[in-house]
Amino acid sequence: MRSEQVSTPFDEQIEELRAGYQAQLAQIGELQRRMREVTGTATAKAQAMKAIVGPQGEVLSVEFPTGAYRSMAPKELADLVVSTLQEAREKATAALVEVMAPHLPEGLDATQLLRGTADVAQLMPAEPAMPDEVREYVDQGRAGGPTGGGPRIAHN
Prior knowledge:
156 residues, mainly alpha, 44% helix, elongated
């Protein structure tokens, strides 16, 4: 004889939660891939230097396509390198914000998040989101819950 699985009222909700979770995982994977591919490119005046940085501001490439750097004083060249890298990093940050912003909760600024200045804690709800039936079970139905009613669960 084959035993049939008994369905409970929560089975459909559990399956919906699982499907939603799997969809979110796929979206997160795609978002991470897109974030890793972000770069920022800047070219200095007179094409004296070109720089490419990655999503975290890491230097990926530095080029001096025209040879103009040869006639620069050391301080002038150093300033050129720093300013060009900063511009490339700003462009990478802007591109990263563009990728991330649509996926962030309302009220969370992607630029502030990337700079570490966003107050993420204020966006968290006081209580986790859950279906009303689960909330009722948690609040009232568990053994030792506020009302003490409902099924008792034996712990070994």
